[in-house]
């Protein structure tokens, strides 16, 4: 292991407060191609039982430090080529621990366009700058400058000579690493985020009315406000600045540069002021804006990731025969009937909201006939246009089948996607959309993986944040959820299989193609026959794939095939079969796990195995519970302050939670109204998909805004 790699491991261990050996173990496994879910689940002895969050943090930090090393190497090469690399400079570059620190060291040597200081040096004014910068009491700047007046070199007067010398001093100050570090600290501590509307843009900037004349401390500004203000700036509607008070910045600079009071110091003071206004302030302000944007991005992405995880891990109805309805007015409601595993059995169109009584009656007869014909066990209704009217109509039929309103965000995106066209080449987007609504009720995770997470509607300024970073984080969340639940290899879609540890799109497609050609897999080892699925891919994926009713009972569990022999040994020691061991708690309680600890297997893995034997292939998601909105409340016009209503949380942000109360417009529970106590993080109180009781505070019908509260009656007084 290189010295640099060891240093990185120590750095990460210190930052995450774990042992360096744990970091080294994770780094080694990642280098071998292991995935985060695999490492966290099946390599606990090596990592000291680090969870997915810690493993992903190590992976990401290693990437950042390696990127820093790459930049360091590029700078060393540049300094060497310029012939300016000294031992002292090399030591400074190699000891830099952050990118800004590294760039500050390199700044004086970085190739740049011709500057005022460069032109002054070309005129021979650097010796004058040296004289002035020494700030000696007996120096007369005017007299010294006279010696540098030289029309042939473009210096026509004493004032031009002094101005050129000040340009050189200003650049020196701006490129001084210690100066930049001190000012950067001031910016980080005292910078104010200010925004004002551009003159004449008031009408176009109406969305940003709150920020027409806004100011707050940048260090504590919440991410949603930063992103909103920066979006207004990007759209040329808001003028934005991020800087500390100028007098505070100049005080820092003069304290570091000025050496007393004398004529030369007066010239240096002019250079200090110019250096700050022309060079340092714009540079550090841009740096501060970038840092603020990065922080806001990270916070927004973290919120999005939490919401996505909660949505993906929503309770599934399970393998039930479902009739799904995509509601509509003029074009009617698209109806599909799905088998217990999501197969499309039938589709139709009904008009329950038509003005014609005949069409309404026919819609009722059609639904009753379909429910009976396909032995329907649940009805799913999308929550879009005409949802509440359709729900009221269906409930009025008294079909004795659960009726559930389903969040259809993203269903239209899926219906127009290549995935949907490939799955249903002979059906239009309306049929595909209805199928997606029904399947989302049956298994939200399996259906939502087919949709770009940004289209699901649980993000916060998701189009404003770093898109590459957002995609990495959301992919991590999807992969984590898919592998936590496990995947039935004989029924899973290619999209679902893609997120299984060690697979990806190519192997997922190969598995489905092999399954279609050869029939269902009967053993996990049969996966090795899939083209291009080698030993490493099998190792990484097998534990997360399930085979129900297969040849080996453990194939339906999360026990990894590499531990089958261990479980079989436990069964032999008890004189029973593996099936007996899985069925009988009393047999399992007789096992002394300490007997099975060896060099490769420790107690963490053994305890995981016992948990799996107790509940093989258990689904970590909660049990499904029916929900219905308040009857008679279907639009904004039905709402009045003081009403108590049931709702479903659809999105959680840093400033509160949005709740669907069945009126086609989500209401906002501000963070101050989430609980009787002070709440710092809304996710501590609510989560996406949670059923809640809310009270209507205010209804703004013009702007279509609903203010809600979750406080208890006692706390409202």
Write a short abstract of this structure.
The protein has 717 residues and is α/β, with parallel strands linked by helices. Helix content is 49%, strand content 11%.
Please describe the biggest sheet, giving its number of strands, its sense, and whether it closes into a barrel: 5 strands, mixed
Overall residue-averaged pLDDT value: 94
Top CATH class of the domain at 116-305: Mainly Alpha
| CATH fold category name of the domain at 116-305 | Tex N-terminal region-like
GO biological process, one term: translation
InterPro entries: HHH_9, NA-bd_OB-fold, Ribos_protein_bS1-like, RNaseH-like_sf, RuvA_2-like, S1_domain, S1_Tex, Tex-like_central_region
Pfam families: HHH_3 (PF12836), HHH_9 (PF17674), S1 (PF00575), Tex_central_region (PF22706), Tex_N (PF09371), Tex_YqgF (PF16921)
Protein name: Transcriptional accessory protein
